[in-house]
Amino acid sequence: MENVYDLLIIGGGPAGLSAGLYGARGKLKTLILEKQKNGGQIVITHQVDNYPGSVENATGPSLTARMVEQAKAFGCEIARGDVQSFDFSGDIKIVKTADVEYKAKAVVIATGANPRKMGCPGEAELTGKGVSYCATCDADFFEDFEVFVIGGGDSAIEEAMYLTKFARKVTIVHRRQGFRCAPTAIDKARSNPKIDFLLDTVVEEVKGDGILESIVFKNKITGEITEYFADEEDGTFGCFVFIGYVPQTEMFRDVIECDDAGYFVATDDTTTNIPGVFVAGDCRQKPVRQVVTATSDGATAAVMAERYIASKFE
Length: 314
Ligand code: NAP
Fold this sequence. Notes:
The chain is α/β, with parallel strands linked by helices. The chain folds into 2 domains: 2-113 and 243-311, FAD/NAD(P)-binding domain (3-Layer(bba) Sandwich); 129-239, 3-Layer(bba) Sandwich (FAD/NAD(P)-binding domain). Helices cover 24% and strands 25% of the residues. It has helices spanning 14-25, 60-73, 123-126, 135-138, 154-163, 183-190, 291-313, and strands spanning 4-10, 30-34, 77-80, 85-87, 93-96, 101-109, 113-115, 131-132, 146-150, 169-173, 195-198, 201-207, 214-219, 225-229, 238-241, 245-247, 277-279. Strands 1, 2, 3, 4, 5, 6 and 17 form a 7-stranded mixed sheet that branches. Helix 1 (14-25) packs parallel to helix 2 (60-73) and helix 5 (154-163) runs parallel beside helix 6 (183-190). NADP nicotinamide-adenine-dinucleotide phosphate binds next to helix 5. Its EC number is 1.8.1.9. This is Thioredoxin reductase.
């Protein structure tokens, strides 16, 4: 079948790149479609210490670059494209971007997850003007400024630690007393003299005229409202938001089974309710979301796709 890929992978993060490597190495005609930059969440990760075998001080972008080269070395194609629609009802799956229609015998969806927004007034207007979701990208704008980090999971605590290299003071704002992150991480943060905590607290509003100038906090226990204003000399400060992620599954939800939080439901071997469609990485329901579990999913999905194609088309 000409112009039909064996395997089309939607998403070029670690899961998609791993599926691309395994698919191409398994001699499948393989294409990865990525709408933005390859690498997904790890391109905004300053250090990846827990990916087995990664070199000391490996950064997200350097790890991504090696994954891209490795997949390409086996013949995997990578194209830019934002999926607008799809038809998974036939044996040949169809995926359309604004200007190209792709056909494939099997599809791996590895669309990942995006940072959750606080949803408070001012957040959208002040994003990139003091409100950030990426310490790696924006930390150096806050050299010797004050910053707030919102959240109590691993991302918040790890990024707060990273931000202490730049900011003169980092205040972690969390909506309860207990932390979701690894106990060792919070112990480290507690012993860092640059880190302060504001607990049982949520952000009600962020304010500023073109740049972040104040944050309104609400104490969840007492209901007390307080407003923090930028130091007069600084004129601004940072608000880094790490309150979890939202799976990028929305356009597929009517067709592929998802759980209440929107994550794809799949078996351990990444099989979905649609034959020939597999899901890999952070977009699927799973207990641990890490680079290593994403690449593991990608490998499994490509191998399952290869078996599916062999049984269906050969
Ligand atoms: P997470 O574990 O889901 O934590 C999100 C945090 O934000 C929680 O503390 C949550 O509070 C809080 N939160 C959620 N919605 C909120 C809202 N609307 N307003 C205020 N606070 C809100 O997310 P994550 O830290 O991004 O981590 C995601 C996954 O990646 C986790 O599985 C994590 O272990 C993993 N991760 C691992 C590493 C590592 O191993 N090195 C690094 C980063 C991330 P509650 O606790 O009250 O729900």
